[in-house]
Amino acid sequence: MRRAFAKAAATLRCGRALVAVCAAVAATGAFAAPTSPALTLKDNLYGVKFVDSQQGWVVGAFGTIAHTTDGGMSWQPQSSKTTQQLYDIDFVDARNGWAVGRSATILHTADGGATWEAQKPGVDKHLFSVDFADNQVGVAVGDWGTILVTTDGGQHWENRSLPDDLNLYDVVMIDKSRGWIAGELGSVLTTADGGQTWTKQDTGVEKTLFGLYFADAQHGWAVGIDALILRTTDGGQSWQVQNGATEIRALEQVGFGQAYDNPSLYAVAVVGTKGIAVGEIGAIYVSTDGGETWKRQDSSSKESGPKWFRAVSLTTGASGAVVGAAGAQVRIVDGRVEESDGGPRAAKAVH
Predict the structure, then answer these.
(1) What is the pLDDT of residues 269-291, one digit of tens each?
(2) pTM over cut 0.90
(3) How many domains does the chain have?
(4) Which DSSP state fits 259?
(5) Are 59 and 313 in contact (CB under 8 A)?
């Protein structure tokens, strides 16, 4: 499965993106509602970030960036000035944000996305994830062991890449010093010096990990191939398997039924007592006890719904959204993932 995520992300196809310029900032300093029509999200979405229950951003194919001020009920386009795939987005507040993507694309905004400007990282590798501790200190990771670190909001990026050919898919910085990265072959790396150096942690698995989340310096979760959900309560010194298959099988052993029962998971978030993990075939796993246990949500049929969900964002109060294939975006309200008609999905026990 080496570089499977990177290849899939680079080759996904869908319709043309609608990209337009948003309205100017109001004289009061608050962001005015755009005058352009609400955007119908149709292209693949790879990243999402909410800063509160109402305000959030999504990114995706062909440089798509969109913004909501009503909790995901409607979306307004923002001009990214690029057609590159954008794989992740992070905001530290309602004004300061970064998006990363294909061919080392890094975009920055200081006005809530009214304008986006490119930053120059000095590399050309695909970037899959970005996370900032504040408006100065951040880390971006990607293809071929790429790790980029900034201490000045992205005006300059330091190359702290690994010597190994190891794709890195997600990064979390809980403060200016401490952070973690997840990637291929069950890899988790940690830093205690703001990303200057990284140390490998033993997860006990060898399957690719795509998503990562830390609630604090001790409690974290990682998700990956075959519905894997791992948990740590000691900052990554040890990891426990909470769900999924840990054994490595040959490709010919993996049929549709197995893929449905154990879908790859791409992202996870846990806020308070609420937790959500998402992945292939529209799979959603939920926790109502702070990530202690997980249940898989029902779908009406194996064929219905999005082909995949790629990202999830939760804010205080457990509001946010899940995004994925063909513009799929599902609101999260009070920790409940809503159907397109606004009704909460039911849940069932995980195998």
Answers:
(1) 999 999 999 999 999 999 999 99
(2) no
(3) 1
(4) H
(5) no
